[in-house]
Structures are given as C-alpha cells and as structure tokens.
Automatic annotation (TrEMBL), chain A:
It is a multi-pass membrane protein. The keyword Transport applies. Keywords: Cell inner membrane, Cell membrane, Membrane, Molybdenum, Transmembrane, Transmembrane helix, Transport. InterPro entries: MetI-like (IPR000515), MetI-like_sf (IPR035906), ModB_ABC (IPR011867). One of its GO terms (cellular component) is plasma membrane. Part of the binding-protein-dependent transport system for molybdenum; probably responsible for the translocation of the substrate across the membrane. It comes from Motiliproteus coralliicola. One of its GO terms (molecular function) is molybdate ion transmembrane transporter activity. Gene3D superfamilies: MetI-like. Its main location: membrane. PROSITE patterns: ABC_TM1 (PS50928). This is Molybdenum transport system permease.
From TrEMBL, chain B:
SUPFAM superfamilies: MOP-like (SSF50331), P-loop containing nucleoside triphosphate hydrolases (SSF52540). SMART domains: AAA. It comes from Motiliproteus coralliicola. GO terms for cellular component: membrane. This is Molybdenum ABC transporter ATP-binding protein.
Amino acid sequence: MDSTDLSALSITLQLAGLTTLILLLLGTPLAWWLARTQWRYKFLLEAVIALPLVLPPTVLGFYLLIALGPNGPIGGLAEALGGRSLAFSFTGLVIGSVFYSMPFVVQPLQNAFTAIGPRPLEVAATLRAGPLDRFFTVAVPLARSGFLTATVLGFAHTVGEFGVVLMIGGNIPGETQVLSIAIYDHVEALEYGQAHWLSGGLLAMSFALLILVYALNRRFAVVKP
Amino acid sequence: MSIEARFRLQKDRFTLDVDLQLPDRGVTAIFGPSGCGKTTLLRLIAGLEQSPDGQLRIGDHWWQKDGQSLPTHRRPIGYVFQEASLFPHLSARANLEYGVRRVPKQQRKVSLEQAIELLQIGELLERMPDRLSGGERQRVAIARALAAGPQLLLMDEPLSALDLKRKREILPYLEQLHDQLQIPILYVTHAPDEVARLADHLVLLEQGRVLASGPLDQTLSRLDLPLRKDEDAGVVIKATVAEKDSRWHLARAQFDGGSLWVKDSGLPLDKPVRLRVLARDISLALEQHPDQSIQNLLPARIAEIVSNDHPAVALVRAEVGTTSLLARVTSRALDSLGLKVGSSVWLQIKSVAVLE
C-alpha cells in the first residue's frame, strides 16, 4: 500500500464517518416525523428519500455536480459566501454522500419507530414524561436495533459508493480520491496486486461489519413480552 | 370537590356525547358493551384523545376548559391499560421508577414501597417484563401507575386480557386499592362481576351516551335500565358482619333495613362486606313460612313492578327499609297472589354471594 492508497483509505473513512454522523442527526428527526405523521402527502417525501435506491449513481452525481458547481444554487451560494464552489471538494463529497446514503439510514429508523407503536409513548406520557423525554427514554431505546442497522448500513454504503463520488469529487488523490476509485485506478493501470489488497480489505471490512450487525441485532433486540 | 366531565367527540360513525358529575372518592365503574365508548371516555380524561370543546374539572383544577387542555404528561393521573404495557427495555423496578422520578416528592400520594407492598411485587423487581407472567405484569403496571402519585387513577379493563385464574389473582389487590387508598378510581369494564365487587358508583354507557350515573346500589336496582334484562340482574348490598353462628358456620350480615345469613368464610365481626343478591334467586310469599328450607326471609314492600322482555316474566323491586332488592317472578304468580305496588310481601332469598 503506497501513500496515495493510505490517504484514500483515510478519506474514505472520514467521508463515511462524517456522512453517517450527519445522516443520524438529520435522519432521526426525519424518520421520527415520517413514522408518526398523518400527513396525506407523506408518500411523496418517502419516494424522494428512496430515489437513490433505484437511480443510477451517475444520474444523482450529475445533478449534484450541477447544483454544487459554481453556477449551481448550492455551489453559487458557497462562492457568494466567500468559499469556493463545492464541486471536486471533500465538502461536496459529504453533501453528495448524505443524499446518496439517506435511504439506508432513514428507512431502518422509520421502520423501527413505526414498530414501537403509540402505546409505549402514551404510557410514558401518563407517567409525566414530556415529548422530548419520551423520545429519548422510550422511543430511542426501543428503536436501538434500528439505530444499529442504520449506522452500519449508512457507513458501509458510503464506503462502497463510486458513481456519485466520481461525478462530483473527481479523482484528486489526497483530496477526493476514495478507496473504490483507487481500486478502479489500479485496475486501469494493471496494478492487480494493489487492487487485490484494497479489494480484499474492503471485502473483509464489509463482511465483518455485517456479521457485527446481525450478531448484535439478536442481542440488541428488545424482547417483547 | 368532585369530577366534572363534558365531552363530545365524533369519530367516523361513532359519537361520544357525555356530561358527567362523578364523585371524587371510591371506585366509579364505567360499564357498557364493547364499542360503547368507555375506553374513549377514559382516554379523553387522560388527555390521550382530544375533544376540542370538552370540559374537564378534577376537584378545583380545570384540566380542560375553553379550548385549553393540559397535555397528558401534566395531568397527575395513573393509567392502567388493558394490556400491561410495561416498557420492554426496562426491568420491573426501572418501570416503577420511571414514573416516580418524574413526580415531585410532595405530590407522591403513594410511596414506591407502599405500591410494591400493596401489589406484592417485591420478588419480581429485578426481572425483565418478558420474564413475568401476564398477571404479574399487570400487577407491576398497577403499582407503576400508583407510584407516580396520581390524584386520579384510570383503569381500562385491567383484567380483561387475563384468564380467569389470573383475574382471581389480581382482584384482591384491586379490592385492597379500593379499601386502603384515598385516590378516586375510574374503572372501565364490561364484566358485571367486577362492577359488583369494586364499584361504589356506576356509569352506564351505551353507544356513546350515558344511560345512568349514580351510586351502585341505587343504579343496579333501577328497573328502567337495560341492566334488568341481564340474566344476572340483581343488587349489591353493603353490609357489615354483625353476628356469627359458629355451630353452623354462618355469619349474619347487617344492612340498612335487615340482615341476611351468609356462609362464614372466616369473616371477622364488623367487617364490611358486599352481598350480591340476584333477582332470579328471590321468590315472593304472602306469609312467613317457617316450615321450609330457605333461611333468609325478609319482610318487604313492593315499590315497582315492570314486565321483562318476555311477557311471562316480571321484575319486582321490593324495599326492605331503605334497601332495594330485585325479584324475578312470573306475571301469573303476581296475579294469583294479588301483588301490586304497595303490597307487603316476604322475600325468600335462596342464595347470597359474599363479595368481600
């Protein structure tokens, strides 16, 4: 593994970690709201969130590139505020990844919150717990296996992304080059040894993460009487 | 001090429309067939359901008035749901403490220790809910509601999810609640037996409307309510043990206007008991016949006669002192004995159930 590979690994982990954190912060209230609302058009929002599941990543990447570029609304805003356009930057990658991995975080959380049902929260209310109190002491602990699944899937899916990153991040070693793209580069250059190292590493890591999820999920599950 | 509840709620095809004055002590049973709105009424009182123009006053405190409504978590209630609904991620002890921790000390009418003692759940505290039986879970749930120091205890068919054995296991605890605590209890049920055992006040609901609301003994003896059509129609009499006949294992239960001999199950003297006397267990006679097996004979005056659904059968309300009893007899018997309102008769009571 040379230094570009190491920095690709570091960028990948930072990107996945930061994306997962942002997604948990944004996705939790969103999933909570989706699980509880009676809003009749909620299905529209659910469809939007699920889009990355079916859309080719290059399509998503293309639109994000336009939006984040100097002439796009987000990139333009960033420039107007004194920054530089977000295309081909790490920040741009994080924004893209948040959209790309959103369903992998929001859906498990929403399912977990829905599965709780209204009763435990009503019980908590009759025991004097206010709305936030109920959320943190009842909803979150009861949805804990949903949080585990959401965290691991969000992280692993971000590690595995390729198309979106290539479109909006380009392939700048040490700045926006992530592992999946480094592998692609190695294969293009017929450096199969290095490609093996990185691919095998990713394979092992993904497998280990999934084993962890499934093993923990069993122990984590709240046994309902 | 009393409870005043006025609600109107339209839900699909169902309308709940109630205006109730309830006592602020003892057990008020809210009784009616399924779908009559009893659970909805309880949820409205808890604030779990909203009726925009409803009004609710508990003692001196308005919980809902003029479009303002206290959210559930600001109402000092205890709520026992039909299924125990313990938090599955918390041990029995942590379930109890959940409410206790959120209530200021001076508001706790019942201490945690008292609640644990009353429901006898000391042994169960370290277990998770999935390691408790149905009856044990419901006991923990009742203790949890009590330990939160409620000023009003709401119970929504707390026994209906349990089998007969578990019901028998919990009923004594509920009777203890009734006897030992000064908290008013609203108790939703569709089981006449629970009403007879626990209630002091009875609210009869049908299709979202209040058919009757009044003290238990008076309401059960009313002949203008659908209660009378029930096979188990009858009255509940509050009495005290006045005398014991140890040779024959009998006890005399004294009430206002008379007394009845009942089986002595080790009742101490002066113990208050409830006697349940069913209409079908009473027959009428013009004279006191000493030469017969029935031990309980009471002189009474007929106060009211109505015919039941079938014209062959009539229900008679007879007064013994201030106490009313119901008797179910055939219309032909009434006619041949020449009985009408105001007649004096002897009630021959075949069976009396002691409830406490």
